[in-house]
Every structure is written in structure tokens, then in C-alpha cells.
Amino acid sequence: MPARRVNPNRVKMHRTYSVPELAGCLEVHKNTVRHWQQAGLEPIDKVRPLLFHGETVRRFLTARNRDRKQSCGLGQMYCLRCRAPREPALGMVDYVALKATSGNLRGICDTCGTVMHRSARRDDLGRIMPGLTVQFVEAPERLSGRGSPSLNCDFGKRGDK
User: Fold this and answer.
1) pTM of the complete model
2) Distance between CA atoms of 10 and 149, rounded to whole angstroms?
3) What are the extents of the domains in the chain?
4) Phi, psi (degrees; rounded to nearest 5) at 73
């Protein structure tokens, strides 16, 4: 299971935390905090129980999250299976308009064949996807706008009518 990003804003800056307190605050296991210490999280001193200053913890987690982030370049979309920005196969993407000014781009990963998505404004399509063929697709109809009601209903099946 991939590691999740921990929200550094859950840590109070002017407070000190022991390992169990920090683990409870961030909803991680206490061994995770010890792994962070091996990765560079500095305690206040080396005396047990180890105490961490909140500002140090917040700075460490912010830097760790920033280093893990990958931004997509021009003509790229993020592939969840490859875990990297990739170019769409055959240089083609579909644009599904969700609002009048924005929508989602949908393409196929050139490496693994997975469907990739990216949010985009309609006015920025030429700048975001240069040299790619963009096809405009109708958005799927919403459930609340259906003309006929669903026949899979429990009304009237009870004995009390």
C-alpha cells in the first residue's frame, strides 16, 4: 500500500510532542514517527522520552510532501498506474466539458494503457496540450436529469400501503 501524505497543519507549532502524542495527532503508527527520525526529523534532545518541537515537525512534513509531488509538464497527464506524468497515446485527448469554462481532459497512457485524467480550463487547452489533437465530447447525463424514473424501487413492497 502506498504511503499517504500526512497533513502537517495538524501539528501545533508552539507545542512539544512525544512519539506517541505525535503519532496520535497525525493518525500514524509510532514506528512511522521513528522512521521519520531516521529520515531526518530532529528531536529536541537525545534524552528519553524523545520530544519533538511542533515547528520542526511541521517543517519536516512540509518538505517531505513537497519532494514527493510531481507536476505535469505541457502535453502530459498523470498516470496513476505508472505513478508519473506521461504523454497520451497517439497524441489524442478528449475534453469533457463540466461547466461552460472548465472540464476534464481524458487520455490513454502511452506506456501502460490506463485512462488518465486532468482538469483544465477550456481557454487553456492550446497552451496545456500543444501539438495534441483535442476532441470535444458531450458530458454524460446526470442521474437527476433522467426522464424516466428507476424501476428498482422499494416503494409499495411493504405490507403497509
Assistant:
1) 0.56
2) 45
3) 8-68, 77-139
4) -85, -175
